Amino acid sequence: MMCNCLERARTPLLQEGSSGKASRRRIAGRVVEVLNDHYFKELREKHKVPEDFLDTGNTQALNLDLPRLESSHGKGGHGQFNSSCRRYVVKSLSKDDHKALLRLAGPLVDRMLQNRTLMCPIYLHFMDVATGRFFMAMRNLTEAGPWAAKYDLKGCDDDKTIELNGKTIQPVRKRFYRPHMWCQCMWSPERWLYYQGKVQARALRLGVAGSHHEEVIQMIKSDAEWLISHDIMDYSLLVAVRRLPPEVAKSCGAGLDSVACPGDAAIGLRRWAMLDKTTGELLVLHMGIIDFLQPWTTSKVAAMYIKSFEFNKATVPPPLYGQRFAKHFEERLKKDDTLTAQSETVTSAAERWCQEHDGMNGISNGDGMPGQC
Questions:
Q1: Where is the PIPK domain (predicted)?
Q2: Does domain 2-139 have CATH number 3.30.800.10?
């Protein structure tokens, strides 16, 4: 009886910002309350996501007690969890993130339905009834690893490298309660690797083929304007890069006469393949804007003043953050005439090749588990 009372007591929180009663469903054996699903259902249908995409009947299909390795890169301590097929990532939400998603669900889904955005698609917002924890389920933008490099970029001092040469870089951060970390002579090899990854990410410049370049820059600028209008800051551009050898490029159908059409992309993903004329290699880029649920709050204002002596910090008001974000990537992503844009058919073939060889070689997807997609 007491458990039922507690569950009923939570229900008003779930209806906040939504129309209609919150509904229940099962996800990997757990009872959850889904929020604003009249919005997210439309996006799932548009992206051909099955209604049972997280409910395989297997309680191990989504283990919310086993975060993936990339969770360590988040500063808020919120876990990220891979679905068993690796196509989706489930992320735990802070109270502010949860409220922001309740508020933004309608306009956010409307923007994603237009298919002219880099923002990572969100397919479900729910609460685990047993624990009261809030989560969202979103598209995994980099499901088929490993990657030559993967970056989390904000256009400021928080830029970092997440993966390099197929290996996840574990963050080793300086903190006020770790005084020894402020002296480089005390740094561990792991700290040096993390630091070098940050230096590399801050200096990153990427060449992009002509038509792809125009499409990417325009979407970044448009998304930044939209996020400013909704008072959001502290988001990142996730960039994943891989190079495939000439023989693989040929087997995927890459060539100098390939025709790439703007907007020609896989559902829910933003990825571009380009043939390097000088080496014959196939360069594949995956990009997406992530972590776009941080509103400008009084605590953010306080943090901005505490960090007064940091001159390129992430904690700045949304207009400044968005303008800097768009300008940074306009400067760092440059049109490269040595690259020839490839069609989505070539890009899809490259991804299939990577998935097949990922499984054959037993390469980890980042959490020590082989992929099953």
A1: 1-333
A2: yes
What residue ranges do the domains of the chain occupy? Answer: 2-139, 149-361
Q: Answer yes or no: CATH 3.30.810.10 is held by domain 149-361.
A: yes
Per-residue CA distances from 304 to 231, 286, 309 (Å): 16, 31, 10
CA 296, CA 234: separation in Å to the nearest integer? Answer: 9
Tens digit of each residue's pLDDT (9 = 90 or more) over 158-196:
999 999 999 999 998 776 656 666 778 778 889 999 999
Identity of residue 37:
D
Q: How far apart are CA 101 and CA 241, in angstroms?
A: 29
Provide DSSP, 222-288: HHHHHHHHTTEE--EEEEEEEEE-HHHHHHTT--TT----TT---TT--EEEEEETTT-PEEEEEEE
Closest by Cα among 54, 48, 78 to 269: 48
The answer to whether 134 and 92 are in contact (CB under 8 A) is yes
